[in-house]
Amino acid sequence: MAKLSQDDLLAQFEEMTLIELSEFVKAFEDKFDVTAAAAVAVAGPGAPAAAETVEEQDEFDVILEGAGDKKIQVIKVVRELTSLGLKEAKDLVDGTPKPVLEKVAKEAAEKAAESLKAAGASVTVK
Question: What pTM does this model have?
Answer without folding.
Answer: 0.52
